[in-house]
Write a structure and sequence with these properties.
This protein is an alpha/beta fold and about 260 residues long. The protein has helices at about 10-25, 30-45, 50-65, 75-80, 85-95, 105-120, 160-170, 185-190, 200-215, 215-225, 230-245, and strands at about 70-75, 95-100, 130-135, 145, 155-160, 175-180, 190-195. Bound molecules: ligand PTJ.
């Protein structure tokens, strides 16, 4: 379907269209469409823009990534559909390895997603096969690569399920989640929960990575000063402010960037 640029919900409709197309191409699973709807509902509540606390988490994520020794970005069907170009660009900026890791895993879908990322400029994308298993994880997501997620010190997990986040944290890794639901087990379990829409979050982290690459002292300072509990509290407080403004019948203006 052709969506007119003038449509007030253009960006949101484009994202849906991308997901449906990727579902038809065998990249996204039907469950991914449900997951997207949940994300959209949270995004409405947050005002469809990056909040100030999300920016803080994004900067902390970037600081960890530039200081990491073996950073890896995990990609699933939804992520490959919504932000393949942005993920490849971020991986190059860090630089980080990309590994395709699926909850509803089939080797054919892993191959299709690897091909999509490679078409967008990704190199050495891992995913097919796998030579290691994440301990204490029974789902198909346990199958990973030693050169990828298994051996990583910092892992980015966008649109994740809580089980793997918990298992990766238990392995001693720094886990950066991107999930619009601040109450999800993923957000609760991650070392750095980024509560923002995937594409916006990846673009912001990319920008901060480029900035902090040039300023290692600032990166070290941010790693030290970021406090997950404080950041999540700020997120809830932002949400409360949005809802209170709606109750008073005033549109809640965000003091943030989009
Ligand atoms: O491709 P696969 O097989 O690995 O499966 C991918 C899905 C997404 C189906 C799988 O990981 C899954 O079931 O995830 P969940 O448990 O539904 O969690 C997805 C989380 O991402 C939910 O908390 C959503 O609110 C959130 N979410 C959805 N879309 C976005 C989002 N967060 C940020 N940006 C989005 N665009």
């Amino acid at each position: 379907m052709k969506i007119p640029r003038s449509h007030p919900r253009y960006e949101s409709l484009i994202r849906r269209e991308r997901l449906v197309r990727a579902w038809k191409a065998g990249i996204v699973v039907p469950e991914g469409l449900i997951a997207h709807g949940r994300g959209e509902a949270w995004d409405y509540l947050f005002g469809e823009g990056t909040s100030a606390p999300a920016l803080v988490a994004e900067k902390a994520a970037a600081a960890h990534l530039v200081r990491a020794k073996r950073p890896v970005i995990s990609v699933n069907g939804n992520v490959a559909a919504l932000a393949p170009k942005e993920i490849v660009r971020l991986a190059k900026a860090i630089p980080a390895r990309i590994e395709v890791n699926l909850f509803h895993r089939t080797e054919a879908r892993v191959r299709r997603i690897v091909r999509t990322l490679t078409r967008h400029g990704g190199t050495g994308v891992l995913g097919t096969g796998g030579d290691a298993r994440i301990p204490h994880l029974d789902s198909r997501r346990a199958l990973t690569h030693r050169a990828g997620i298994y051996g990583a010190d910092v892992v980015v997990v966008p649109l994740e399920d809580g089980d793997r986040t918990e298992a990766l944290v238990r392995m001693g890794k720094t886990v950066i989640a991107i999930d619009l639901n601040p109450l999800s087990r993923t957000s609760q379990m991650a070392s750095i929960p980024v509560v923002d829409e995937l594409t916006r979050a990846v673009l912001n982290i990319d920008e901060f990575v480029r900035e902090l690459r040039r300023d290692p002292e600032e990166a070290a300072r941010i790693v030290k000063s970021y406090k997950k509990a404080d950041n999540l509290r700020a997120m809830y407080s932002f949400l409360g402010w949005r809802l209170r403004s709606l109750l008073r019948g005033r549109p809640a203006r965000r003091k943030t960037r989009d």
